[in-house]
Each structure stands twice: as C-alpha cells, then as structure tokens.
C-alpha cells in the first residue's frame, strides 16, 4: 500500500472499521499517521493494525442518536479534536422487494443512510468549533446509480447518501468538506458469499475493465486522499473507485454485421 500523504496529528473515526472495506480504510489511515477510532456493534474478530499501530475500538449502535452523540463527545474529550469521519458502516442481505415487507427494507435504509446522517451531524458539532474544521467521507456504491435487483433498498440508500453528501458540502462549507467514494466490487473476507469460490471471484473480476476486484486497502488509499490537505479544494465530489465500471452487456450480446 502506497502512503499518499501524512495525517500525523489527525484524529479519525471509521464507522464499521473492524472488517472488510472498513478495516482497509482503518489500515490506510494508520499508515498515514492518523490516530484512529473505530466503532461498530461488536469488536473485530481479528485485530486490525498497520505500521505497528492499532485503532481504538468503541462499541456503539449507529442507529441510536443519543449513543452516537455521546460517542463523538468522548472522542473529542479523549483526543481534543476530531478531524476525519469515514461513514463506512452498512451492508445488506440479498432480498427481493416482494420478500419480507417494507419494514425489513426500511432497516436497510436506516443503516445505510440514516446512520450516516446521525454520525455526520454529531461529528459536525465537534468539527465546526475547531480551527481547520474537518473532513467527512461517505462510502457509497455503484448500486446507487444503477438497478440493484435483490438489493434495491441498499441501492436507494446509497443514492440518497451521495445526494446527502452534496448538500452537506454546501451547508457546512467552508469549515467541513464532505465527499463520497463510490465503490464498485471489493474483495473482502465475505466475497465468497456473493461470488463463490476463487474461480468465481476471478470470473467476476474479469468483468471489470481493470480485470479484478478492488482490495480494501486501495479504497483506504482513496479515503486518505479525500481526508487530506491534498484534497483541500475538493468538496461535494463523488470519486469513482470501480476499476473502470462495468462492461456494457450489449457489447457481449451484439453480433458483428453480415
């Protein structure tokens, strides 16, 4: 993993930073020198660390606004400041729209959209009072800009998250910058649940122009850039991290002329 910039002295919070993409973001921030606090409902199954350093972990339910507010106040009290928030927590089971009823789909939207709003509001209260403000990074998805059968509520939430970030960037400027990383497919410890065995992962990777799935640490590098002073004039932006996107299906379906 290449070190993009120096975040020494910065304090960052990564929601859901204990595994998968979140662990990659945590490692990248640690590599860049930041002090990192991760939060989730449960601690990591295995330690997350980089450069001989580890993050602090605090259990918190991001759907509980009171608990989230207390968590961010504790971070500010312990470290004296809060510079970066990465809203990474989220996810969804595969469920068609006519399965399970509206309540289950609403819980997906609550986790993937409303929890990020709750965390961002609490972080903003800390960032707005300090010199230099801060940076908020939303972890979005290409599912928010294309049909997502089986994960429709997740796609709708990610579309909303990107729009929310753009509005925050206007309302909270110039002190707080807000941007979105729009992710394609990422190889994590749960990839087999979506793509099958190694042959399946490789086959899916070949559908991406760059020929493979992203690694979590590559998402982390992009996150470090948006959080850093090198992105000081970038706010309200959506950075695509999808390896070139998806090859249009019609190109494979079409036949050459007679």
From TrEMBL:
InterPro entries, per database record: NAD(P)-bd_dom_sf, Sc_DH/Rdtase_CS, SDR_fam
Highest taxon listed in the record's lineage: Bacteria
UniProt KW keywords: Oxidoreductase
Classification via PANTHER family: 3-OXOACYL-[ACYL-CARRIER-PROTEIN] REDUCTASE, SHORT-CHAIN DEHYDROGENASES/REDUCTASES FAMILY MEMBER
NCBIfam families to which the protein is assigned, alphabetical: PRK07856.1 (NF005893)
Family statement: Belongs to the short-chain dehydrogenases/reductases (SDR) family.
Protein name according to UniProt: SDR family oxidoreductase
């Amino acid at each position: 993993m290449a070190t993009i910039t120096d975040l020494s002295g910065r304090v960052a919070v990564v929601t859901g930073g204990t595994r998968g993409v979140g662990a990659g973001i945590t490692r990248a921030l640690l590599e860049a020198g930041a002090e990192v606090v991760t939060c989730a409902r449960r601690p990591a199954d295995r330690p997350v660390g980089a450069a001989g350093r580890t993050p602090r972990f605090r259990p918190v339910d991001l759907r509980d606004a009171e608990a989230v507010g207390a968590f961010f106040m504790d971070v500010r009290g312990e470290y004296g400041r809060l510079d970066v928030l990465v809203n990474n927590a989220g996810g969804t089971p595969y469920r068609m729209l006519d399965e399970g009823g509206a309540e289950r789909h609403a819980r997906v939207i609550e986790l993937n959209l409303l929890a990020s709003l709750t965390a961002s509001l609490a972080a903003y209260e800390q960032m707005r009072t300090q010199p230099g403000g801060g940076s908020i990074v939303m972890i979005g998805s290409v599912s928010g800009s294309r049909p997502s059968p089986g994960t429709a509520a997740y796609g709708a939430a990610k579309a909303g998250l990107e729009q929310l970030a753009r509005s925050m960037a206007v309302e909270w400027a110039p002190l707080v910058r807000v941007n979105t990383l729009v992710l394609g497919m990422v190889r994590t410890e749960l990839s087999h649940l979506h793509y099958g065995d190694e042959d399946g992962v490789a086959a899916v990777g070949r559908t991406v122009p760059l020929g493979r799935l992203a690694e979590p640490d590559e998402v982390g590098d992009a996150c470090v850039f948006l959080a850093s002073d090198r992105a000081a004039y970038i706010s309200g932006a959506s950075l695509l991290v999808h390896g070139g996107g998806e090859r249009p299906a019609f190109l494979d379906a079409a036949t050459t002329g007679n």
